[in-house]
Amino acid sequence: SQPKPSAVPKFHIPNKSKYFNDVKKNASFRCVFVQFQDNAGLNNIMSAAKMGLNYLISDVAKPLIGTQKWAAEYEKMYPKDDDLRQECEEYMDEFDEVETLKLQKEKEMAETPDEDGWITVTKSNKLGASTESAQEKKKLYDKKLEKKKKETLHLYSF
Length: 158
Known about the structure:
Elements: H1 39-51, H2 67-77, H3 81-111, H4 131-153
């Protein structure tokens, strides 16, 4: 049998934005306690610390710390207008493609009969209503109102 109109496949646009993230990442440092099996490892770390070497485990080779990190986060909060506009336009183009695909699927479902020969009628908005016809209807309505006002004005004039 033919799938129901509500069973039209849902289209999902994956989030590829560098400005609009779904999940906020917590990029703070954590404290780790390490227990060495022998003293040689501890001595190596202590001698490296005396020489000024720090061991940071991170996805980035040298993560930003302090004011550098704050400045980078601040710049991320206010992206350049051109970059943001371009990303929004790309997203809207992709969204429009998905919407046209969705409308095509719905039209195909509405036009194809199922096994028994029945065609499923779905609720759809008529998109063909032009502004000209709406303006004509408004003019007719305004004329009717004027006639009613004139009738009530001349009701008791004798």
